[in-house]
Amino acid sequence: MKMKKILGMFLTVAMSVSLIAGCSSNKDASVTSEDKSTTTSDDANKDADSSKTEEASTSGDSFKVAFLPTDMSATFASWLATELKTAFETYDDMSLTVMDSKGELETQLSNLETCVSQEYDYIILLPLEPAAEDDIVAGYIEQGTPVMMINLDDFGVENASSVIANPFDLGTIVAQYAMTQLADDANVVVLLGPSGNTDSIERRRAYEEVLFSKTNITILDEQIGDWEKSKGMELMENWIQVHGDKIDAVISMNDAMAIGAYEAAKAAGVADNIKFFGVDGLADAAVAIDNGEMTATALQDAKVMALDAAGICHEILTGENSEGFEKIQIPVTLITKDNVAEYIERYTDNGMITK
């Protein structure tokens, strides 16, 4: 198995490196280009029921590639889709189609089937539930359609390509910083991603090993927030009613839920007494850190993922990669008040932050 892997032991190096990256806004930004290989259309795939599809124009000799994100209303999925569009525009012989799964496993599986039946040359999958999709993906690969897992992978399909940021490393890097910011007997609440989600499980495991098991920190409660800002807000409102001013920190498995929790705390007048930790390194989180609202986040860089993913697709489709798959883990970076200025500048330059 071909593997390029950046291990958690190099976190301190990754923390010192400013990754070159670009980002997207919370909402899906369509890309249109007459001269490039990627354009968009809202109704390009009418065969996939209840699926929002953005289709790329294709020339006769182009390789057709599909990207199936979890939900384009989710911040990171939208950012990654935009970065993939940009990355594919640099290739004259590949075109990209984005098929929104709308957070529904049934829709994502239907989109997978559509891609195979319409003879797409390559499928990039941001899976909703890897364990539920592994056998299906393995079957499509065996039939001759190469597949890549991006952003989330349980490594259940040996011959699938993979481009991810190690979720345990993402949790570790924030947990290590949280240890320096919280009292040994602090009270915290924990926001989790969807049930069974590998990223959420591994980030939570990192917090357990690095922080919770090594301190006297009390977990007042932890609940599933499904990566959603609104659910982070709702849960925080409930926690404030139950625990009052006892909450010292919110430990969130992603940025969106952390920001929602902050807004609830701010509305209740208790935000200044609470520290908020997230994961993803989104533009909104960088602004929140710069404003003193969030304490830290870990960047999993969508642009780096997209560039690696497009490169792997091209190598496999052109035969440069003879194995037919490749697995990559990208570096992770801690963002705090000490280095947030460079990310504010970066996100401003690429339009994610507007003044």
TrEMBL record:
Domain of life: Bacteria
SUPFAM superfamilies according to UniProt: Periplasmic binding protein-like I (SSF53822)
Chain intervals for the UniProt region annotation (Disordered): 27-56
Periplasmic binding protein domain span: 65-320
InterPro entries attached to this UniProt entry: Peripla_BP_I, SBP_2_dom
UniProt entry tagged with the keyword Nuclease: no
Pfam families: Peripla_BP_4
Chief location: other
Keywords: Signal
Localization of this protein: Cell envelope
Composition skew (Basic and acidic residues), residue ranges: 33-55
Annotated GO CC locations: cell envelope
Any one GO molecular function term: carbohydrate binding
Signal peptide: 1-21
Protein family per UniProt: Belongs to the bacterial solute-binding protein 2 family.
Descriptive protein name: Monosaccharide ABC transporter substrate-binding protein (CUT2 family)
Species for this entry: Lachnotalea glycerini
The organism's taxonomic lineage, starting at the top: Bacteria, Bacillati, Bacillota, Clostridia, Lachnospirales
